[in-house]
Amino acid sequence: MSKRWLKERRQDFYYRKAKQLNYRSRASFKLHQIDERFGIFQEGGSVVDLGAAPGGWLQIAKERVGPKGKVVGVDLQHIAPLEGVSTIRGDMTRPETVEELRSLLGGKADTVISDMSPNISGSYSMDHARSVDLCTHALEFARRTLRPGGSLVMKIFEGDMMNDFLSEVKKSFSSVRLHSPKASRSSSSEIYIVAKGFKGPAEQAAPSVSGPAGLEV
């Protein structure tokens, strides 16, 4: 890490605010802003966080669902314990990890959130394709795990495969939007898919979406 990068990080508004509020990551504010805009959490709800380390999104989810809610998370990396949150360490692309996570949840989820990101290779097209692949795993998990009416939020890198993937998401949700939270860095190619109104496994018809791409910024 360069000295310039470390200096810019320390000067970053959301990095400093995360430190002040004892959040584990500046990314906490991305989820906070998404929920403020779209209302993806409900008090007493059940939430699954995919790619949860270091735990910033878990903290926001737990705050929003409250003491009667349930929050579980998974990541390849170790997640330090959080009060009222259950986590496992594993690979979400492997069936055994998916089954362990669903067992830990112990029922259906109201919200699935995914901030999963591929290891950056330096090849944008490759990184985009890997991002879409991770989102595909998140979507399939959500289809198996969400209760009807539930919500799915996932990070994706913009690129030429995104529109086809959005068409797939629209088969299962009544509302699908693209959203870039203010907390996202301006230099980042990431954007978030916010899908609400899960139709359930039996109904997969594509919904009508406002605007040519359902884009919100």
How would you portray this structure in words?
The longest helix has 22 residues. Strands 3-2-1-4-5-7-6-8 form an eight-stranded mixed sheet, with helices on both faces. Helix 3 runs parallel beside helix 4. It is of the alpha/beta class and 217 residues long. The protein is built from seven helices and eight strands, in the order αααβαββαβαβαβββ. It has a single domain, classed as Vaccinia Virus protein VP39 (Rossmann fold, 3-Layer(aba) Sandwich). 37% of the residues lie in helices and 24% in strands. Helix 6 links the parallel strand 4 and strand 5.
Any idea what the radius of gyration is?
A: 17 Å
CATH superfamily membership: Vaccinia Virus protein VP39
CATH architecture: 3-Layer(aba) Sandwich
Kindly name the structural category: alpha/beta
CATH fold-level name? Rossmann fold
Number of helices: 7
Mean pLDDT, to the nearest integer, reads: 88
Low-confidence stretches are 1-10, 203-217
Q: Compute the number of structural domains.
A: 1
Widest sheet: strand ordering: 3-2-1-4-5-7-6-8
Strand content: 15-25%
**Shape type:** globular
Please summarize the sheet with the most strands. 8 strands, mixed
The number of strands is: 8
Percent of residues in helices comes to 25-40%
In angstroms, what separates the terminal alpha carbons?
A: 31 Å
Q: SSE order in H/E notation? A: HHHEHEEHEHEHEEE
CATH class: Alpha Beta
